[in-house]
Every structure is written in structure tokens, then in C-alpha cells.
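Hi there,

I know you've been waiting on this one. I reran it after we fixed the sequence typo, so this is the corrected version. Both the input and the resulting structure follow.
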Amino acid sequence: MRLLAFSDIHRDRNRAEHLVERAREADVLVGAGDYATMRVGLESTIEALSAITVPAVLVPGNAESDTELCRACASWPAAHVLHGEALELAGAQFFGLGGGVPPTPFPWSFDLSEEEAAAKLDSCPEGAVLVVHSPPKGHLDKVRGRNLGSRAILEAIERKRPTLVLCGHVHQRWGEEAEIGTTPVVNVGPEGRFCDI
């Protein structure tokens, strides 16, 4: 199965249109959050992406809530919004968790505490493709000497051993890869990246 994964397009219509073109070569589109900017522009970004007809697995970022993303995707038949839920597509399990984890300092941000994230991640199937907005603590998350990622996400990866982890959120680490045990972790960024599972 070929995935086209991206994150953090933040209302960039040109990038959205580019993803629409590239999605013709994918079996599944995966969006790891932040389609809007500070809760603005979500609808127009999703409208541009909704030309994509392959199944789309989307998690909210911290720039939009799960409720806002579900509402924006209501008229996109291919879209599946996951936030603490699993979905099977063509025999592959996907599990999604959105939001900023741990909470960001921004008052507009859609965030979860480490405890809230851990509770949602408990139901992640072993060996699933894990789609999260925030990176795991200590992996693809370092900015100015500080690790901004999530302890709960790291522990879930260690426990559930996903096939692949796709994240975003930390812009300075876009396009970078890491491994946790045998699990590849990719901070995908807005250009989009093909991944085969």
C-alpha cells in the first residue's frame, strides 16, 4: 500500500493543490494535522484537498480541533477523521491522535495533556500505522536544545510497536526520520512524502 503523507500545510492552497495532483499515485492520503492557521482557514484548505478521491486518513493538528475538522470534512466522502480511533483500510490498521501534546503556550491551540493522550492511545492496535500530530519525546522534536515532543506518544510507540509513525507539528524537523526500536518515525511536513507499507 502506498501512502502520501503530509502535515502542517497551514492554509497554503498551492501546497494543497500540489497534494491533489500527487495523490493520484497513492492508495491512501494521510494528513497529520494543521490544515488551518490559528483556527482560521480550515474550510478552504479542506475544500481544496477534497478533490482527492483515494481514502484520506486525517488527524487534527493544534491549529484546528477534532470537531472543527469533522465539520469541515462533512462533504468530503473519502475523508476519515481519527482522534483516538482506529480504522481499517484495505487490510491495514490506522490509528490517529491529533492536537498539541504536551499543551502548547498558545491560547488558540487545540491541545491534550500527556494523561489525556495516553488514555486515547491505549486503544491503538498493535502494528497499526500511527498518525499523530505531535512527535514522540526525544525524536524529531528538538528546537533550540529543547525536546518538545510527547512522552505519552513515545510510550505508546514502545508498547504498541506501530508499523510506521507519521507526525508533524515541529516545523524545524520537517522531512527528518528516526527509529524507535524497529518502528520508523517520519516528521512528514507540507510537501508530502510517499511511504510504502
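Quick highlight: Residues 13-22 form the longest helix (10 residues).

Best,
R. S.
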